[in-house]
Amino acid sequence: MAVGILEVDLISGKGLKRSELFGKIDPYVEIHYKGQTRKSSVDKDGGRNPTWNEKLKWRAEFPGSGGDYKLIVKVMDHDTFSADDPIGEATIYVKELLEMGVEKGTAELRPTKYNVVDTDLSFVGEILLGVSYSVMQDRGIDGEEFGGWKHSQFD
Q: Cystine design at 17: which of 10, 63, 119, 124 (Cβ 3.0–4.6 Å)?
């Protein structure tokens, strides 16, 4: 099993649907991978066409437990006085990316536009992001890791 860093380069959104009748949206993104969630900042001035330019990272094992190798990208509208509203989501399958990363040490999906859809699968905008995976190198003289514990080579 290989352990590495899965990194999402979250760039921007375009043509996002308004979740409210009046006012502008304050979009941010939640990305879920195997029970771990990362959030972007809120783009208060971006409205329907936000720009984030942020990198979000996860520790990823391949092959790991479960076979659910996908990123769920949820686009949300931040609300100050009520619960945040969902705008839509996109799913990005990363199994092949992880396989290639394990084989070559690193792999990348260049920034690509993904459709954002509502719960009824209607188009509500698009999001631009890239994904990469890099296998973590052996730590050499620091010792080996065993279930989170390091075993020193020196007594």
A: 124
